[in-house]
Amino acid sequence: MLKKDEEEKIEYFEGETPDRKIYIDWGRQGGVILAYIVIVLGYYAFIANTLLFDEYGFDISYLDMDRTIIFWTYETYFSSMLSPILFVPILIALMVLIIVFSLKDWHSFQILLILIPVFIIFILDLYWNLFNIVNVINTGTLYFTIQAFCIILLFIVCFALTYKEDIPEYGIKASLWMVPLIIALGFFFYAIMFGFAAEPLVLQFGSGQGYINILILILTVLSGSLSGMKIKKEITKRKEI
Questions:
Q1: Nearest Cα to Cα of residue 123 among 94, 156, 100, 159
Q2: Contact call for residues 118 and 94 (beta carbons, < 8 A)
């Protein structure tokens, strides 16, 4: 006899015999669907803070906004204190290091516990507060880049997807689909606001900035999912000791 919760996982195709059963793990699939919904609703929500404001902070019509930002989203969280020529390589290097130490066994757990906070502090631009710590303490105002939360959100979602999986490959595979999802969202939002045109294809696949954006998305997904796998593996190992 099947338990009640196991019976709920069984569905029958209409017209099929009861011997042919399909088992669906609603807990796992539900988590993946929720992760996709969070990205769909959250990623461009942070980007919108840049899209609909001019350089002086005044609201602008979507018709006057910089359309390239829809496809070159990494440009929205550039550090105001650091040149893009330095910011992008450092960001990529941090994510590559997280990926490397997620795959290595040499003090990886401890190094990841340092690298991940450093990555978050760097992309949010929080480290500049250290140079003006007196003003931060006196005013209680902390400087950070709001738009960078889009990439932090993607990292955390991919981390959680893999961390919760007993078979990490499932989480990694589900995380990788975030990249085409975000790219497709860019085309979708552009079509809604400006109609169908060839410009999105040029911006995304006909420019260096478009490929840098894709590279950063892929590295974010891989660093988040692989670090989730590694940290869970280390925590599980320590519990068994």
A1: 94
A2: yes
**Alpha carbons 36 and 42: distance in angstroms, whole number:** 10
What are the tokens at 14?
A: 């209409």
Please state, in angstroms and as integers, the Cα–Cα distance from residue 29 to each residue in 34, 81, 120, 174, following that order: 9, 42, 28, 10
**What is the 3-class SS of 39-64, one letter each residue?**
HHHHHHHHHHHHHCECCCCCECCHHH
Q: The whole model's pTM is what?
A: 0.81
Mean pLDDT across the stretch 44-65? 72
Whole-number average pLDDT of the chain: 81
List the structure tokens of 169.
Answer: 């490959």
- If we measure between CA atoms, which residue out of 187, 179, 189, 168 comes closest to residue 218? 179
Cβ contact 187:123 at 8 Å: no
